[in-house]
Amino acid sequence: MAERQDELDRILARGRPSGPQMDAMWEKISSQVSPEPAWKQAWSKVVARWWLLPAPLLAGAAALVIMGTPVKDDRFVERGGVDGPVLQATCGGQGAPCPVGKPVFLRLGAAPGGVAYVALASADGPAQLLAGPVTLRGEPQALDIRVTPEQEDVTGGLTLQVLVTPSPQPADEVLQTFKAGGGQRLQLRVVP
């Protein structure tokens, strides 16, 4: 019966080596050939799993995007909204003291509406109105004011005040409000 099976395999192979003959030849050859080097076997595994290489990079990029997204400022405010714009002053660096002779740049933070007045407070006299009425547009806006600290400002610094009203007011009323301590205050440190 084995002879008949061999005869059928030879006929089906059409003159080429049959399946069992090819298996027998492979057994003889593979026992005499040395295996592939380890680095080549390792590299073939890496190539077979190519999708694993970019996975940590993609995960890191996703984490960077999530962590780099700015967080919305959801502070609690008292009823009625914010209590007016915040006066911001820059003396060359964030939080840096103002050097004598260097200009101070002012801007109003975002406010929903109304009119703002800015004054320079004085320890020995009345406040000096620097800007106003400035119509608030609901977005941060720079003020076209040039304040330059002088040598006598080193001891006490500069005190700026901002007052927001629903509509324009006479200058003398605004100054009286500042004199009474109304409005927000911003104290700037001055260095020589």
Order of helices and strands: HHHHEEEEEEHEHEE
Task: List low-pLDDT spans.
Answer: 76-82
Cα-atom radius of gyration: 41 Å
Q: Indicate the CATH class of the largest domain.
A: Mainly Beta
Q: Shape from CA axes?
A: rod-shaped
Walk across the major sheet and give the strand order. Answer: 5-4-7-8
Q: Biggest β-sheet: count, sense, barrel?
A: 4 strands, antiparallel
Structural class by helix and strand composition: alpha+beta
CATH architecture classification of the largest domain: Sandwich
How many domains? The number is: 2
**CATH topology annotation of the largest domain:** Immunoglobulin-like
Helix content: 25-40%
Note the total helix count.
6
The overall pLDDT average reads: 75
Give the amount of beta strand, in percent.
15-25%
Word description of this protein:
The protein is α+β, with helices and mostly antiparallel strands. It has 2 domains: 2-66, no CATH class; 87-191, Immunoglobulin-like (Sandwich), CATH 2.60.40. The protein has 6 helices and 9 strands, in the order ααααββββββαβαββ. The strands form 3 sheets. Strands 5-4-7-8 form a 4-stranded antiparallel β-sheet. The chain is rod-shaped.
